[in-house]
Amino acid sequence: MKKKVIRTSTVPVSLSGLLEGQLKFLSQHYEVIGVSSSDEEILKKLESREQIKTHAIDMSRQISILNDIKALVKLYFYFRKEKPFIVHSITPKAGLLSMIAAKLAGVPHRLHTFTGLIFPTRTGFGQKLLITMDRLLCWCATKIYPEGNGVKNDLQAFKITSKPLKIIANGNVNGIDLDYFSPDVFDADTKTKLKETLHINENDYVFIFVGRLVKDKGINELANVFEKISKVHPSAKLLLLGGYENELDPVLESTKHIIETNANIISTGWVDDVRPYFSIANCLVFPSYREGFPNVVLQAGAMGLPTIATNINGSNEIITDGENGFIIPVKNEDALYESMLKLYKKQDTFSGTKCRELIASRFKRKLVWESLLKEYNSLS
Q1: pLDDT attached to residue 1
Q2: Using the 8-state DSSP alphabet, how is residue 203 labeled?
Q3: What distance in Å separates the CA atoms of residue 303 and residue 177, rounded to the nearest whole number?
Q4: 66 φ, ψ to 5°?
Q5: Could you tell me which residues are beta bridge partners of residue 176?
Q6: Is 46 helix (H, G, I), strand (E, B) or coil?
Q7: SS3 category, 354
Q8: What is the pLDDT of residue 123?
Q9: Most CB within 10 Å of its CB: which of 45, 62, 129, 238?
Q10: Percent helix, strand and coil across the chain, each rounded to 5?
Q11: The pLDDT of residue 320
Q12: Is the separation of the CB atoms in 106 and 142 below 8 Å?
């Protein structure tokens, strides 16, 4: 009989998106159950694609004492019923509630992966509360896995736990599917048609950003810098793939105005498949303030693109300055301007083959999966 593993996340899109393929791989060796908040459509698709069972327990992403207690009780009784060998959580709220419930239920192996940390960018009471929650999570967990060295360093610097911290493989929670993210997938005709649809000329230089259009992603700085560049260099284009979050982390109204009025900025909103857009782009620009281990930087590299990224967790572990892109200071418009202009003028060029090889050698999906399986198998 296979030992039972329960993987938990706060919302099902995290299990479905962040762990795509991984759960199916693990199910060859363990009985895997996915636990997350209710979304019947996503959970059914997850069951079918990953060939696992799922169970819905609603968890709020925001702090909500009453709802959190309800979720904690439900998790406790579910773990008591299923008697898993391992409970392994990702995302903050699921991590806190799952680790407490699993400890109370006597689950022998309680694992949590930190995919990113919020508290380093917060101050005051809010920061203290988040630190306390993560310390409680770690106290209840038996194993803690930072997604990368940056996350590991922050956990140590803020004294979140004295327990050993282990990074699986070379970092990233799921690795990159190199067959899916490949520059060879799209032929010249497909690229030409997409460019025509987006009104991009053959000789245009295309910068691309993929992610939420929010302050923390550096969109204010990116819009200001591109506005300056496009006034002097009209063959520069900026592709923005993502939507606004006006309630949680809005950009400045002046930034919205630039995006809406600059004819060289093409804002598509959310897209299900970013690969065609990567295939017609020349460079990813990712001036984020904070990350855990950004998948979009891995994806761009696998598609053969260099990246201009800020010197933050994850990004600075994927991009080696001068080899597959540039690393620049956070919130530094001058550095962003200089880097974008260098690439536009081809003062610095990067080999697409080398950009891809640097990703393939360290973050291939199979490498991450097999390293995680080895970690599970080491538990007794």
Answers
A1: 87
A2: T
A3: 11
A4: -65, -50
A5: 364
A6: helix
A7: helix
A8: 87
A9: 238
A10: 45, 15, 40
A11: 95
A12: no
- Look at the block and give the residue holding tokens 């609603």: 58
For residue 136 the two structure tokens come to 């409680």
Please, which residues have CB within 8 angstroms of residue 188's CB and are 6 or more apart in sequence? none
What is the per-residue pLDDT for 217?
96
Per DSSP, the residues of 112-181 read: EEE---SGGG--HHHHHHHHHHHHHHHHH-SEEEESSHHHHHHHHHTT---S-B--STTS-SS-B-TTTS
Q: What is the per-residue pLDDT for 116?
A: 78
Segments of the chain with pLDDT less than 50:
none
Q: Is 197 helix (H, G, I), strand (E, B) or coil?
A: helix
- Kindly report each contact of residues 348-353 with a partner whose C-beta sits within 8 Å and lies 24 or more positions away, as own/partner: 348/322, 350/306, 350/323, 350/324, 350/325, 352/183, 352/304, 352/305, 353/304
Q: What is the DSSP string of 242-288?
A: S-B-TTTSPPPHHHHHHHHH-TTEEE----S--HHHHHT-SEEEE--
| Cα–Cα distances in angstroms (integers) from residue 21 to residues 51, 173, 369, 373, in the given order | 10, 12, 9, 13
SS3 316: helix
